[in-house]
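Deviations from the work plan: none for this task. Representative record:
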Amino acid sequence: MAEKGIGARVLRKEDLRFISGRGHYTDDINLPGQAYAVFVRSPHAHARIKRIDKGPALASPGVLAVLDGQDVAADRLGNLVCGWLVKSKDGSPMKMGKHPLLAQEKVRYVGDRVAVVIAETYHQAKDAAEKLIVEYEELPAVVDLAKAHDAPALVHDEIPNNLCYDWELGDKAAVDAAFAKAHHITRAQFVNNRLVPNAIEPRAAIGHWDPGQDAYTLYMTSQNPHVHRLVISAFIGIAPEHKLRVVAPDVGGGFGSKIFIYGEECVVLWASKKIGGRPVKWTAERSESFITDAHGRDHVTTAELALDKEGNFLALRVNTKANLGAYMSTFSSCIPTYLYATLLAGQYKTPAIYCDVQAYYTNTVPVDAYRGAGRPEASFLLETLVDQAAIELGMDPADIRRKNFIPKDAFPYQTPVALVYDTGDYARVFEEALKIADYYGFPARRAESEKRGKLRGIGLSCYIEACGIAPSAVVGSLGAGVGLWESAKVRFTHTGKVQVLTGTHTHGQGHETTFAQLVADKLGVPFEDVEVIHGDTDKTPVGMGTYGSRSLAVGGEAIVKACEKIIAKGKKIAAHLLEASEGDIEFKDGKFTVKGTDKSKTIGEVVFAAYVPHNYPPGLEPGMEETAFFDPPNFTFPAGTYVCEVEVDPQTGKVDIVRFIAVDDFGNVVNPMIVEGQVHGGLVQGIGQALLEGARYDESGQLLTGSYMDYAMPRASDVPFFEVVTTQGTPAVANSLGVKGCGEAGAIGAPAAVINAIRNAIGVRVEMPATPERVWRAIQQSPMLKAAE
Amino acid sequence: MRISMTVNGKPVSGDVEPRTLLVEFLRNHLGLTGTHVGCDTSQCGCCVVHVDGESVKSCTMLAVQADGRSVTTIEGLAKDGELHPLQKAFHEHHGLQCGFCTPGMIMSAADLLNRNPDPSEQEVREWLEGNLCRCTGYHNIVKAILAAAQSMRAMARAAE
């Protein structure tokens, strides 16, 4: 292993600029002549726009333009679209409601964009926005997902019952037959709480039309600048793709929320041309982020597990109602379907599974991918249901899992819900986690807590996820509108330095370090000589961006392929220089050597010859720069076991997490330090979902949790130090690195571990977020605690 | 209104509207964009700077209130090209991911260590009440602050 190659805990290259306040986030950029945009948003969840009077706003000092939905229509700009076509059970396509950049005729959620004011300064734009006159006719709002089907109003007048699609997966007849002969059926209802992603950097954008070149530049907070360029060109129609440059500089966290194509970024780009080519900047206030960034989760589910009398799982039946919000966000359709129901086998050999999903519009913020995206919902319901089944059958939750794990010799394993798991050894990871947790020593710890008046519980969660998104042909057959390959360009300079241009984007994941380690390892160059460049559509090859824990498994593999091309070309040059045949040249540790001799050339010498080809193979192109695209043959399947131990204060209902053990199989690992950091962050988002976070609307569709005063973000004092173990994994087979992806695991696995631990402590499953009030109320009604009294 | 203050050891002045926040003055007038804005309710702590040596949320203070005072931002924390022990510790312990909360975290932690050179884990966690991070789960931030405290105590002992 190179000193700073694959597997090394290398400190991050990107840190220096961030710890010294010299990062370059979008809002840090100011262009000459820049004007400022402030959006006027709907204060109503559902209303008809009767009249907009721009006069007073236009007359306000410093105002350059006021634009609304009619201006968007007049310029024939396209609507925002969902890029994944899901079909209903009857074969009909999903019903996509029109989503204009600025509202036309109706507003459909509190925060819906009605107009934009452009002014010389931010404060002038803000003052003028207050003066815009909008008259609304309020309509009844559809807020409650459970009642959306028969609600008295339609979010989109042309879509009956507010039903976007009614989708299914699995063999219903086989499941029904298994249920008919089951010894025991475990049933439960679940609410998967709506979350607000809350990347700490709010969204921001600067749009600039250059009249001289008739070209556009959009600086923005994006996880996937090429996807933004594609949609803004092909669907919105603001600029042709070759005349649009999208730059996503340093981005302060995404968690899914910066994947999507929203209206604001499109509007500032369009508005720049409307005001003659001055740059237009918009930066969201946090209050805007809460009501405009796509939310996550928000399911209501009924699930049933059929078992035989030994506790073997026979079949799983799931019905889910999923909330889409007011409009279909970019990838909203595939989250509660292909990223959800396909994961319902979990780590178990359940032979028959059926899931159907009804997705509804409501007058709330659109819902889309948020860290984990579908997989946390699947994992949560399965892992809490399995626990419940164990309790009902009088089994230890550990034993029922052991009985049902897919055995390690069953891989590749075809699940009944479409996926083929590549590799895994679930039982081994499970036993490792239980050992670290001293699972069987728990009764003594419980007794010790009891002496202090606390109720102690332990909870397990065995999650699986599908990452490395995604094999293009597979997702294409399921309705995806794009391919999900990734790209890389590896470029040597004359002096032997390396630039790596990737189509992925780093916004906290540390790609600048991890990818440099990869290249240092593969090409035998110093880590310090490798610079990773990303986030600019004019620099990098077309790429699909960062989400779904794909960057290393797909983007990293594209880098490996580009390195292989470099080595292949280098062999031709080295053979020429060493007067040997190409087949006799070996490459190792940065040296091309003639097999069986000590004759060699360093990669630096070979690269120099490629750029100064005075003595060079005839017919070979000069230069040393290679591009590769990689389309994975399959997903990857990270999996692990999480063990959570809680203490509950019966007087207050407050839950303290006293221990949390995470053992993950991520396959091979490039930088263990970064991987552990990813798990820490995911765990706290999962614990946040379990204990603290939840977006709440009132009956009229006002978001009650619209600021950090009202939405409980996890804080440092809410969580302990974690025991995170990246176990010696089972390498993935879909990429040569054997890596599986680690970005979402924590958020997927943690909620069930926490909720199972609370149930173990108090005898009742509490809905998320398990706030002190909910836990206290549950304690008052706990049969287990009543029996103990 | 005309205001003057010392920022990172240098005298600066500017004309601001009375409603201008200190963070706007730092970012937009002085170009010190290391101080970030992550919320509008004084909760996230991305904007923490020191005013006369104490941590302040610069989104919650008017620029005119800082008139005549001494302000230190993340750009001014390193001394003579040498990173502050907290900056080093955040790097060495992977205490940052996206980096957006980091300047506020470091400035806030610096004030803690000025007040309490030997905080417990719990004291660090409680001090960070006013600083939100969405990436790290706080694990490595707390580790970094405890490590910096230790190295600063060692430096103080060595200087005695």
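The mean pLDDT of chain B is 97.
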